[in-house]
Batch of 2 targets.
Target 1
Amino acid sequence: MLLDLLDLDGEPEARTEEDIFTGRSPIQPRQRVFGGQVLGQSVVAASRTVSGDRPIHSLHGYFLRPGDALKPITFGVQRLRDGRSFSARRVHAYQNGEPIMSLIASFQAPAEGIEHQEPMPPGIPDPETLPSSADILGRVDDPLAQDWAYNRPFDVRYVEPPIYFPTPELARQHTARNTVWLKTTGPMPDDQALHRAALAYASDYTILESTLRRHGLPWTTPGLSVASLDHAMWWHRPVRVDEWLLYVQTSPSASGARGLGTGRIYNRAGDLVASVAQEGMVRLPHPPA
């Protein structure tokens, strides 16, 4: 399913204003398009207008409107600059003639330079020892739970207990940290552009859960409303999304009905392959006590 979603219609044509591509959404219980899908498809659209030897290294985008999963999405790519080492692209995702997402992405030719990274946290259990989403949600008689359990293109495994439902531990701990292992449920071709687009897709899954954990809020909190507002991502090193990746997330701040989530993504060898930051709307029906 993931490869079908990232296989956009259209070819780069170096038009005066925009290169045009079209994407689709999977059938799902909710009519609203998953934000990570639009991120991943935008990365594919932008990548098709850049030389293959320049992988994407960063993006900064805003979610402007909810997407309708029953309608196609049009992606317009504007070629902002092609320099000696870097290329820049602006991508607008449209539905009904209005942008639902706007982002700028930067691409870079390989280069040598100084290197360092924040180390991978120690003592993390192996993903094979942790339950999958299907193990946790497969027994829940709810269309959305069944969709998350069996239809998502990524296997997501929580290091801490997941926050789908209220638990005594969630209510007691209030820690602004969330850690998951993830990888695609099937193999991916040897195309770094696709792997980076797929990682953008997955980066939106759980990034705001560290904010919810800090306040003891499960996803099933009555009246809870959460929506992604903006998203920034940096790819530091080559990555394979069909191999296990550790996504370490923290929330440094929440205020004004907004929560900030940050994340570091490591491969199993401990290499930091990407960093993520996202602010999201977090609203409750009543102010917290």
Note: The two ends are 43 Å apart (CA to CA).
Target 2
Amino acid sequence: MPFPYASPEQIMRDRAEYARKGIARGRSVVVVQYADGILLVAPNPSKALHKISEIYDRIGFAAVGRYNEFETLRQAGIRYADVNGYNYNRKDVTARALANVYASQLGMIFTDSIKALEVEIVVAEVGETPDQDQIYRLTFDGSVFDEQGMAVIGGQSDTVATRLKERYRPGAPLSDALDAALTALTEPGGERPSAAQLEVAVLDRNREHRKFLRLSGPRLERLLTPPQPPETPPAPEAPEGGPKPPPTAPEGDIDTGSEPPL
């Protein structure tokens, strides 16, 4: 019996729908710019399986979907960066070039393979100034999006992005950017994830050489705890029976040394 015929358009639609369903089951990841670099936040209680990683000196990687699939992409990106940095110059390794490599690989798999990769990734590079920061979002079919200021992948990304736009402010300090990211990741009326349930990292432009830094433990706890306003000490009370302050004359009775106004 011959195989039933399916048009190329139908095959591509089925692959795309299959990949979208798999990616939507993952928890969203938020990537935002802040005053000193780029912040990457992902709800992830696992301490061994990372959704956020370092690729090279100034480049970070975030992913949502099947772990084994995006881990293969991460390792391929590290090999590409190491080889090019060794053969040419470390500054020649850029997020734009890495995004093009990922886009070619994802697009080829989506077109030629029976099953598309159930992954969505972000490649971010921190520059010397905020204007030089780069954030690229790549989808399962190899499409590349040059994001400005922030990016959301996985889960209910449209809803999370809408909440993030309401709270995000360009040039915000790290604590404010983290607060905006957690607000976007938390459902209205829900409870925010604790430090143990989060995976947080930054690409800090002020660090020497390697810009990637994971935030965990007490450092993350301090960022999640809002600062308490200093307590104002109560005014001392005059002891009973002690000297009383001199009476204050009414404002109209004060002699200013000048003629009264006409």
Note: Helices lie at 8-24, 67-87, 95-112, 157-167, 174-185, 217-224.
